[in-house]
Amino acid sequence: MGDNRDLTYVAFCQFVDERLKSNTQPAKLRTLAMALRVDGTKVTSFIEADVRMAAEVTEIIRRIVTEEFA
Question: For residue range 1-25, what is the model confidence (pLDDT) as tens digits?
Answer without folding.
Answer: 545 678 899 989 899 988 878 888 8
